[in-house]
Structure formats: C-alpha cells, structure tokens
Amino acid sequence: MIILRNLMRRRTRTLLTLLGITIGIAAIVALSALAEGLLNNYSNVMSNTGADLSVEAKQEAGAAIQVAVNPVDQRYADELRAMPEVRGVAAMLYTVVPMPGVPYFVLFGHETDQFAIRRFKVTVGEGLGARTARTQGKPLLLGKVAADSLKKSVGDSVTIYNVTYRVVGLYETGSVMEDGGAVVALEEAQRLANQPRQVSNLAVQLKRPERRDEVLQRLQRRYPELQIVRGGDTSGSAGWLDLIQPFAWAVALIAALVGGVGMMNATLMSVIERTREIGVLRALGWRKRQVMGLILGESLLLSVAGGVTGSALGALLVGVVRRIPAVSGMTQGSLSPALFVQAMASALVLGTVGGLYPAWHAARLTPIEALSHEAGTHAAASGPTRGGMALRNLFRQRTRTLLTFLGVGIGVLALAAISALSEGMFGEFTRLMITAELTATQANLSDMSLSAIDERVGKQIEAIPEVQYASGGSMAFVTLPEVPLFMLSAYGPLSPQWQSFHLRKGGLTQGPGQLTLGWKAAQAMHKDVGDTLRLLGAHFRVVGIYETGVEFQDAGGAITLRELQKLMGKPRQVMFYEIKVKDPRQVGAVLARLRSEFHGLSIARSAEFAEGMPDMQNMNRMINAILALTLLVGSVVVTNTMVMSVFERTREIGVLRALGWRRRQVLGMVVGEALLLTMGSGLLGLGGAWLLLRGLALIPLLSMLGRLTAFTPLAVGRTLAVCVVLGVLGGVYPAWRASQLLPVEALRYE
After folding, report:
1. pTM passes above 0.90
2. Buried b (16+ CB within 10 A) or exposed e, 510-527
3. Within the chain, what is the greatest distance between any pair of CA atoms?
4. How far apart are CA 364 and CA 295, in angstroms?
C-alpha cells in the first residue's frame, strides 16, 4: 500500500509524529476519564441512598464557591419527618478533613438510626452502634479503599484534627468516594466541620412512593429556597465540580493541538522532500484530488494510529492513578465507550486539519515545477546572510520553522498565561494581609474555604504580652452573572482591617442586611447606594462604595462578621486571624511561640501567607502538570523538526566534517539551532499570552483577568527556562546523530 510505504520511508519522523499525537490523545482520555469519574462518584454519593426524594441547598447566583456543598439547616429534617406522607428522613453531612498522604479525604456523617447508613455494608468488624461507642471511645467506619491506602484495620486509631478515633469496622458501598473515606456519627461530623445543626443532604423516604411526584411538587412550593429532586437524580449543587471537566479538556486539547501542529509540520516536510516524486505522479496522469487523497490518507492513517495508541496509553495512565492513594479516594476514572469515541474523533480532526494544507500544497504543484525542484537549495539561497549559521539553517525551511514556532508556542503560551495569573493571585492575596505581620489559618487543610477557627483562640493569642491584637476575619467567593469571582469579606465592627476601606460614597457596613460594595463591582453590576443585592441566599442593601486598591476586594463587597458566620453556618468562627506584634523586632520570636502553643493553626509571616495557602499550592501543582505536558509534547515536536533538518542536510554535514569540523562542533551547531528555535517559540508564547490575557480583559465578565495578571521575573524566567530545557531535550538526539556521521557516508547520502 503506497500510503503505508511512504510513511515507512522515514521511520524516525513517522514514529516521532505518532508519539506527539499519542501523547495528546492520551491526555484527553486520562484527564477526561478522571474528571468524569469524580463527577460520577459525587452523583453516586448524593443519589444512591434508597430515597424517594433528595433535598439539598439550591445553587443560584450569589452562592458560595467551596469544596463542600452549601449546607442545609437540620430543622428541615424535623419538619419533613412531621409530614404524614413521609416514612423517614436521613440527614447526611460530608466534609474534607486532613489525612497524611491524602489531600482530599472525605468524612461522612450519618444518623446511625436512619436508613441511609445501611448502604455502608460492613465487611469486617461492626457498625456505629451505641455499645461500640461506650466500650471503645469515638467510633469510626473506614472504607476499604481508605483502609488499604492508610494501612489501617479494625482496632487501629485514626487522628482527625487532633482527635483520636477508633476504627470499629471496614465497609464497602461500590462508590469510590465513599469507599475512599470514612463514616462517623452525624453529630461528630458536624463538630469536626464546625457546622452545628447543618447537613449536606436530606434523603426522604415516602410511605407511598407512587405519589412521589405529587409530594415533590408540594415540597417545591413550600420550600423554594431548597433544591428538591427525585431520588437518584443529581441536583448538581456542588457547582465547583462543573469546572473540573472543562479544565481537563482544555489542558488535554493544548497537548493535542501541539501534537497536531507537529503532524502538519511532518506531513508538509514529507511533501517537500517528495516534490519531484509528486511531479512524476502528476506527469503520469494523477489528478489533483488523487494527490490530495494520498497526502490526506497518510495524515489520517497517522492520526488513527495515534488515536489508538493514545487511547491505550490514556487507559493505562488511569489504571496507574487508581493505585495512587492521594487520588484513588476521589476518583478511579470512568473509561466509557463514549470517551474513546471522542478521543478517536479528536484524532481524526487533528489528522484532517494537519493534513489539509500539505495536501493542498502538494495538489497545486504543476508537473514541470515539481520535476525541476531541488529540495533545500533555493531556500538556502534566500535565507538571511547575517545572524550566524544557526539562524541561516533555520530559515532554509521557513514553513517548517514557523510551524514549529507555532506548535511549541501554543504550549508555552498556556504555561506563560497560567504562570502570570498565578503570580498575580499570589500578589493579591499577600496584599490582603498587609495590616499585620502574621497570619493564622486552620492547619492541615486541603482548601482554605474549610478553615474555621474558634473566636476563643483569638482571645488566647491576644493574651500574649507581645501581641497588640489578633483580628479575625472571613471571606467567601460567590458567583454572580456580572462578577464570576465576587469576594465577600467580613470583619468585626472594631477590626483594624476596616481602615483600608476608603469610602467613595456612603458609609461602612454597620449591621445585618447591609453591604459595602467595592467600586469595581459597583461599576460592573451598575449598583449604587440604596440598591439591593442577593448573596448567599440573603438580600443586602448597599450602604456604601469603597476602594482598597486590592483587586479582589474592589471587585467584591464587605458585610459584618456575624452576618457571614450565620450565612455560612459557622457561628463564632473565623477563617483567619491577622496578628499584629507590638515590637516588629520580635516577630520571629512571637511566630515561634505561637507555632509551639497553637498546633491546630498554620501561622506564617503575612508576606509569605499566600505561598502556604492550600489553594495556591494546588494551583502550583496544576502549573507543574501543564509544564510537564509542554515539555513532553514540545520536545517531541522540536526533536522531529531537528531530525528532519539533519536528514536533509546530511551531505552538507559531510562536507563540514571533511573540512575539519569536529564532532563537538557539529553537536553544538544542531543544539544551538534547537535552542534558538525554542527561545523564539518562548518569546512568541510570552507575547501571545500577554495579548490573550489583555484581550480577555476587554470582555466585561473576564475583566478581572487582566488586572490579576503579573508577568513577574519569576513567571517570565520559568517560561524561558522551559524553553531552554525544550531546546536541549529536542536537540540532543538529532545533534548526536549528526555528530556520528562519517564524512564518506554523509557525502554519499541521497
């Protein structure tokens, strides 16, 4: 078959191109499967309770963005149980707690006398009974997946927030999220989560299930503030999960796109080196559509092969992730047939797009032009005469060089944009805490939104003679149509933090139902003093417009601390403390004392606070993942380009070797070209990232992106360092191959 024979002519190039496509498709399969698995696990937890109806908090504009779902007051359970149509109501609360080696360990709280806990099938030990509680202390059930990960069994102890629990039984449910977590009594979970009388879900069983729809409609009219659906349906109240799958697809498509550009590059080079052969085919009567079909066929065959191998590699990666304790408790991936169809469709699209231009280029060649073509000679003559041999060599094949710039530049663009946003967010969070030298949050958390510190702790800190004050505060990020990331700040009435709120109009928040609005949020939402705004399920009247100079605050609002505590179900608790030291020279000594006396807190200098935030650390992990993908796919693209460059210049390298060039000189020349290529791609990516973020900032809903961008020396340096590594990785093999050529063999090469 002519298509397969053409591909096997240059096995190295074909294999490298295939590798680039494989990595991109593997990223699509693996990331999408893990995201889908997380969504399915969450749905199973919320829907497979054996209930006729499921009740949760309603997700609406102005709802908080947090790891756990918005809580529901437990009083609703009492009201529902009093209804004559209801057989039983099972309340459940889930929260994320710290566990060694497991960043997101889910703890479930269930009522031990209700039907929902029966889904936890105890395989070893016994359940959460009263007898066990009396004889062995605080009981805890551990999922089988969690038990394997933590190396725990019945009788062992587990420490959560400095409280020791005894494992009384191991269970299985079939849900990875549940089997990777633990179960305690509801009251105990509420205490650990600092959410007294709050629950995540109410499972309702009816006396007459056939009347479910009738009861459902009645409850929806009676409780419009709640999300009430049929048992087994997913309400989707954890809105943060909806962001995971689009993000996974975005990262995977970046890898696939870079691989696709690499395939276009390889196919185009194949066409250029076979120009005379194509001329012969045209002279023998081949029509344009036949030539196009030949080149497109090669591209599609490569993409299909890449799709198959990428799908297999993606499935293998999912299998590896299933064995990682830090992830296995949340998702084990969902490898559905639809996912593999999507992956193959993506591969075919890449093959079609990657082959169209080369096929069109080949088809438009006339027989006379093609037969008179001499590969590489005309390009060399028109290259730049200054700038060194490396630059001149790159410009011999301008199209190939530009496509490589584009392919690598896409990956660098993504890395540079996210790095700039990360640095900007680090800076903004640091500026939030500049009123005091030290900042304290709850220790060992996977997400700062889970932090809840008892106000009595603040009084204990203030009792230290060297401390001037310990001022507590909280914040919540909510979603609004005009401001997707609206930060709601809350402080006590006498808190020093209010001094940074400079009023433009009106006054500061004084009591319940009042809101002071940041000037940028006021502009975006067209709000003024006297207008109302709905946040966290409550209505607020705007009493003032302020400016702080901090982007998050100016694009948000502020209410009283008591109000936010009430709305978030965290009475007398704050998210953080800002600690002011009387003598700045004693900051180090005070920090050491606080860390030794308050083990439940994570305390750091305010200037270093953002670096220790779990949210920022997770963002760094995300950047590192994109960095790894960029290096992996980008190095394949660069290697492919440099291998093709060495192949077409084999005789020239032979001449240089015959003239006395040593192997290290040839090695340096090729690596230098690769470095020049990647550094040019890096500059292109940096410029593209800057333009992209500035362009997105012109969109009202995304205007915050432009103001949060910080192209700091660290962000730029990280990007350029990636380019250097790419140049070295991509140039080493082609350079080694070129340096190994003997002059006689090279001069005979055709």
Report:
1. no
2. eeeebbbbbbbbbbbbeb
3. 99
4. 13
